[in-house]
Structures are given as C-alpha cells and as structure tokens.
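Human: If only I could read backbone structure tokens as easily as an amino acid sequence. Underneath my words sits a plain record pairing an amino acid chain with its backbone structure tokens. Take your time, and here it is.
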Amino acid sequence: MRNYNLILRMALSAALASLTGQAAAVTTTSSFSVTATVLTTCSVSSTDLGFGNYDALAAQALDTTSTVSVQCTLSTGYSVGLNAGIGSGATVTTRKMTSTDSATLDYSLYQDNGRSVVWGESGAAAVTGTGTGAQVDHTVYGRIPTGQYVSPDTYSDTITVTVTF
C-alpha cells in the first residue's frame, strides 16, 4: 500500500505540474468615459477705416471701406454691431469725427456697397451670420458726404465693434 500511495502522489504531482504549464490566462476588464465640452465662442478683429483727404468742394462723397473679421464655433449664430462712436452728438445714422479744436465732420457706416443700409448696434441694423469655425470677413462701407465746410485739421473717431452670440 505504501508503494501505491507513493505512486498516487507522484501521479498527482505530475498531473498538477502539467496543469500549471497549460493553465489558461485569467483576465478582467474595465472601461472609462471620454468627454469634452465644446464651448460656444467667437472672436473679432477689425481694420482701421481711413478716408484720407476730404475736399468739401468735391462733386462726389468720399467713400472707403474697412473689414470686421469674425470667427465663431461651428453653427454659432452671431450679430455684429457698430456703436455711434465717441463724437459729440453722434448717432448710428450720422457719426461724427472730431478735430483737435472740437469741430466735427459727419460720416456714415453701411452694410452694403450701395451705402443704403446703415450699420448700427443691434437688430436689423446689425450684420448677422453663422459660425463656420473659419474667419468670416464683413466689409464696412464708409462715406463722408460732400458739402461739409469745416476747418482744415485732422478728424478722428473710435467705433466699438460688438459681437453678440
């Protein structure tokens, strides 16, 4: 019986040794979420609008343009408003550049090349668009009407561009 037990132990040891070499790997898994929030955002930049030299006796108004560039996230609706400026008594219909001696020179800003739609601060007077992710350029059409008899000087104004989104 003793030999039998010894043979049985040896057989069991051999069986166990062969099982550990062939044992299947045990695995376990987990998962995690990946998230991000894309913010609704816009940025704006603009170029100066320089009329150059104004001649009150000229037969035609003095016209020029500048650009307001807007970049908004995809599908973001926005409007671009231009305030009346800082000239005393200015409105969005009649803006005023001021000289060093406080004289004023009237001018207007428009949404269209025909200079028929005034560019104002909000609502229908503002320019609207939808973001594409790329920069969108909007032309500002400026005009100084003829027949303004003002003192020779340098005249200037500052317009604030506001993008609402």
Notes: The chain has a mean pLDDT of 91. The first strand starts at residue 42 and ends at 46. DSSP finds one helix and nine strands in the chain. Residues 2-22 form the longest helix (21 residues).
